[in-house]
Amino acid sequence: MPGKSQLAFIKIVDWLLTGFTALVA
């Protein structure tokens, strides 16, 4: 299920960006 894998990847990337922004801000 490539769709589910891609969705999980996007979710992880979004989580990393959110955490990175929180650290910078």
Describe this structure in words.
The N and C termini lie far apart (36 Å). This protein has one helix spanning 2-24. The protein is mainly α and 25 residues long.
Instruction: Give the CA-CA distance, first to last residue.
Output: 36 Å
Structure class: mainly alpha
Low-confidence stretches: none
Fraction in beta strands: under 5%
Helix content: over 70%
- Count of individual beta strands: 0
Short summary:
With about 25 residues, this protein is mainly alpha-helical. About 90% of the residues lie in helices and about 0% in strands. It is built from 1 helix and no strands.
Which properties best describe this structure?
rod-shaped, single chain, 1 helix, 0% strand, mainly alpha, 92% helix, 25 residues
SSE order and pairing:
Layout (H helix, E strand, L loop, with lengths): L1 H23 L1
